[in-house]
Amino acid sequence: MSDECAKGTATPTVFIENQRTRVTEWRFKKKGDNTGWHRHEYDYVVVPLFDGFLEIDTGSGERVKAEMRNGIPYFRNVGVEHDVINGNDFECAFVEVEFLEDA
Question: Which of 2, 8, 34, 74 sits at a 20 to 30 Å CA gap from 59?
Fold first, then answer.
């Protein structure tokens, strides 16, 4: 994720960071918590740690509701811009794996 992201209310915890990879848990304590607006500077994989939904603000004026399945990962390419919001009535989290450099 870009270092120049807007401050959100979700809590990031970096577990691994080296020349090739950064692994961050994003924890959303309550409905409406968010990552803050940001642009991804690297390709990345997200692994949800819950069953439920995230709301994605893409800047178009609408929020997209994205279904998450516990342990089912998805991949995104560099350049994605958005704010990720907890759309659930419960705490949720996901792990984000960024590929900082080619192997």
Answer: 74
Per-residue tokens: 29: 């304590």
Query: Tens-of-pLDDT digits for all 103 residues of the chain?
Result: 654 557 899 999 999 999 999 999 999 999 999 999 999 999 999 999 999 999 999 999 889 999 999 999 999 999 999 999 999 999 999 999 999 987 6
Per the CB < 8 A criterion, the answer to whether 92 and 26 are in contact is no
Taking the model in full, what pTM does it have? 0.91
CA atoms within 13 A on the CB side of 60: 5
CA–CA separation, 101 vs 21, rounded Å?
7
Domain range 11-99, its CATH number among 2.60.40.10, 2.60.120.10, 3.40.50.970, 2.40.110.10? 2.60.120.10
Helix (H) or strand (E) holding 56: strand 52-57
